[in-house]
């Protein structure tokens, strides 16, 4: 939890004043008796009122309460605020709050409002069953690998859009200049088309190369045993 406190503190000091006011509002609203701290009752009541039921957990409160005085001080409430806004998850299998690395089902992450997150212990010990189909083994990635996966996927989509745009432009150029009676214009168009097609070819190859890299990544991870099969249990 110390690491989360440090991160929360760093983010807080980088916030503009108007956002710091939002943090203060979060704390004062939770602290219903105005004592400057939030006890377990205030903690649970506020989080349930705000729709954060999964965070309204006694064990999570104890983890936040670093000094063990059974109340959350300003720094501890700031850590809670950061944990909620950053979407820090709970393990779907054991229910523990995940303070560090976690594993997430890629398909759930991309398509579901409530992705399947697992702590390192439950993932390592295979204390779960999860699938999206009879013959499908879901791909699980840790949070760092998931970030890289999303980065590469975004770049691939961007290159694909550029490829489509280049193909459309090249097609339009061919149609326009094929109807022209000017030999000079046709020659110039041919030069433009050649240049465009070279660019299209380069982008197409790079897109294929990136996609192949992602496919190889998935194959390597599957070979290492990443994923398992049929609803979290």
TrEMBL record:
EF-hand domain: residues covered: 18-53
Gene Ontology MF terms in the entry: calcium ion binding
Superkingdom of this protein's organism: Eukaryota
InterPro entries: EF-hand-dom_pair, EF_Hand_1_Ca_BS, EF_hand_dom
UniProt keyword list: Calcium
Identification of the protein by name: EF-hand domain-containing protein
């Amino acid at each position: 939890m110390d690491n989360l406190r440090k991160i929360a503190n760093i983010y807080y000091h980088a916030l503009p004043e108007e956002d710091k006011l939002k943090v203060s509002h979060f704390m004062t609203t939770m602290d219903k008796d105005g004592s400057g701290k939030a006890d377990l009752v205030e903690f649970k009541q506020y989080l349930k009122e705000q729709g954060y039921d999964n965070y309204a957990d006694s064990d999570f409160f104890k983890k936040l309460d670093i000094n063990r005085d059974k109340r959350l001080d300003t720094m501890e409430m700031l850590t809670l605020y950061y944990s909620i806004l950053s979407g820090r998850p709970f393990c779907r299998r054991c229910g523990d709050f995940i303070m560090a690395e976690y594993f997430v089902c890629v398909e759930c992450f991309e398509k579901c409002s409530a992705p399947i997150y697992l702590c390192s212990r439950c993932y390592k010990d295979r204390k779960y069953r999860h699938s999206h189909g009879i013959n499908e083994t879901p791909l699980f990635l840790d949070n760092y690998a998931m970030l890289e996966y999303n980065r590469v996927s975004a770049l691939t989509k961007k290159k694909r859009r550029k490829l489509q745009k280049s193909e459309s432009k090249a097609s339009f150029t061919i149609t326009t200049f094929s109807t022209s009676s000017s030999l000079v214009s046709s020659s110039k168009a041919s030069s433009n088309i050649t240049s465009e097609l070279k660019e299209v070819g380069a982008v197409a190859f790079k897109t294929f190369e990136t996609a192949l890299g992602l496919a190889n990544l998935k194959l390597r991870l599957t070979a290492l045993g990443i994923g398992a099969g049929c609803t979290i249990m």
